[in-house]
Amino acid sequence: MKHLIEPLDFTTEEYEEIFRLVDDIIANPDDFSDVCKNKLLASLFFEPSTRTRLSFETAMLRLGGGVIGFSDAGVSSTAKGETLVDTLRTVENYADICAMRHPKEGAALLCSKAMKTMPIINAGDGGHFHPTQTLADLITIRYYKGGFDNLTVGVCGDLKFGRTIHSLVRALNRYENVKFVFISPDELKMPEPFKNFIDPENYYETRDLMEAMPKLDVLYMSRVQRERFVSADEYERLKDTYILTEEKMKNAKEDAIVLHPLPRVNEISTDVDDDKRAVYFEQAKFGMYGRMALIMYLLGVQK
CA dist 12 to 18, 150, 153, 229, Å? Predict the structure, then answer.
């Protein structure tokens, strides 16, 4: 039994296997419509979500399986004082695989260690990791850029709490000659632990998005996350630090792509949506295909 808790739980070879399966699903969706018949996904979201939760549930339904679960921690027995592990050990009796989001870092790892038969997929644990968003990101980059080697990737916005960014950088760092540009205000810089595994020659930090734009093959925007701030005043001060507009896109490469894990607040103006380089809504669709392939992979089912 294998779990997906953080991006490096899979080797690059395992990712390639999933990418090939995604290619097959996109080309021949009807071939996969009942591969998970009689299988159940437990969708346990202790923190709000739209895309990730619906993407997982849609993925399982498109594979012919079923879904149980909740989207509000208040309706689970943890609200009565039950431990998270006890909740998951109970759900293990009902479901074949589980996608879990939780606001506390390490929650998914803790639960995975208690499982006997049910693979756990980390759908986001606080500001730590979000490996299935990384899967969506990688599939999108691979589709538009043909691969990952020799890319310059800019990540912009909330690098301190941005679990999608932490996960993506960790995954991309395994490929050949990938360069990173970390774009953020000083208060939201990339944490040291997430920089320590990168060769110092392969990244630099800046506060200036416009200076970085012409160098980037991929620009990954992120919102400043209100829910991660203790101080409302600090959030208000930082939330509008970077706003990408079509005017600013004039400084980007013609073949660059703009990604965003969504939800967007105002960090990408809607006038960018019609730019062919803006692929964040396609990215969401690739996420569904990636989760279909991941569910199949972890359950060991084939078409």
Answer: 10, 16, 18, 34
